[in-house]
Write a structure and sequence with these properties.
alpha/beta, Rossmann fold, N-(1-d-carboxylethyl)-l-norvaline Dehydrogenase, domain 2, 2 domains, eight-stranded mixed β-sheet, four-stranded mixed β-sheet, binds pantoate
Length: about 300
């Protein structure tokens, strides 16, 4: 399969390496010219289970360089989704497919609006990976990837992608209700990400303090009210229990949002707690705790530019 990964961050490099290992023809697209130079020179490398896999790979910052792509996999941060979708528009063939494996909600809708819903596939992945430096990634945990079409149809190409991913060691299944999986993943990020970004605690430490544990529970409860009103079915019976379980299972992890804050990078807050606040406003449901988390993370982002003397 001819695959282009859009956004060579942690998940992008992980998927690229695994797909190359199984013989797929993988290329990278990146708007970041400096990173394009580094990866063109050094290739990509993935550290997984005490082994390092290094590969030379074609990378470009121009989507028009990409010809004959069967599948584009969008791995950019949610705030770059619109640009990523616009940039690949002219590189699409009639039957090119576009899969999003991003965090947060709203990405499928943005991509579908720009590229048309027929070719768009939604996905969620519980694979864990951390960037060591540009092009170098550490595989932090093996998780499942779930793909599906909004609306539940299962076209033959979904089975083909599932086959290729599984053959590449990326455990993958198809869901008829991918929306429910996207929101189920969101609710966990709502409880963990902003709180770790503000406190600088590791995921597991959120459970050690009464204060952070209470805030985690309240943020998740607000999100659950919204999800229920939207009649979206969550895949866990007890979401708070599940979120605390993820904190325990990933106790040593520095969440993706805390990693962004530590690097003074823009975060995905607008697509996680921010999405809950926006939904709350339109549904008339109070989201007091999520609003505070949103405001605090936004303030942290603004403080990056201020220098102290
Ligand atoms: O965004 C993240 O870091 C992850 O989704 C999670 C589950 C919070 C684990 O760190």
């Amino acid at each position: 399969m001819n695959i282009a990964i859009v956004g060579p961050g942690a998940i992008g490099i992980l998927f690229a390496t695994m797909l190359i290992k199984s013989g797929q023809n993988v290329r990278l697209l990146d708007y970041n010219k400096k990173r394009v130079e580094i990866i063109s020179k050094n290739g990509i490398s993935l550290e997984s289970k005490n082994k390092v896999y290094t590969n030379k790979i074609k990378i470009t910052d121009k989507a028009t360089d990409l010809e004959g792509i069967d599948l584009f996999i969008i791995c950019v941060k949610s705030y770059d989704t619109k640009n990523a979708a616009r940039s690949i528009k002219n590189a699409l063939r009639d039957n090119s497919l576009v899969l999003t494996l991003q965090n947060g909600v709203g990405n499928v809708e943005v991509i579908s609006e720009i590229l048309g819903p027929d070719r768009v596939i939604s996905g969620v992945t519980s694979q864990g990976a951390n960037v060591i430096s540009d092009g170098k990634v550490r595989h932090a945990g093996f998780g499942e990837t779930v793909i599906g079409k909004i609306g539940g149809k299962i076209p033959a190409y979904l089975r083909e992608i599932r086959y290729v991913f599984n053959k590449s060691g990326l455990k993958t299944r198809i869901s008829k209700d991918i929306r429910s999986l996207i929101w189920s993943k969101l609710v966990i990020n709502v409880g963990i990400n902003a709180l770790t970004a503000i406190t600088h605690l590791r995921n597991g430490q959120l459970l050690e303090y009464t204060g952070t544990r209470n805030i985690l529970r309240q943020a998740v409860s607000e999100a659950v009210k919204i999800i229920k009103r939207k009649r979206i079915k969550l895949i866990y019976d007890d979401v708070i229990d599940k979120t605390e379980g993820v904190c325990e299972a990933t106790a040593q992890n520095i969440s993706s949002m805390l990693q962004d804050v530590l690097k003074k990078k823009k975060t995905e807050i607008d697509f996680i707690n921010g999405a809950i606040v926006r939904q709350g406003q339109s549904l008339g449901i109070a989201t007091t705790v999520n609003s505070v988390l949103l405001d605090l993370v936004k303030s942290i982002e603004l403080s990056y530019t201020k220098t102290t003397s």
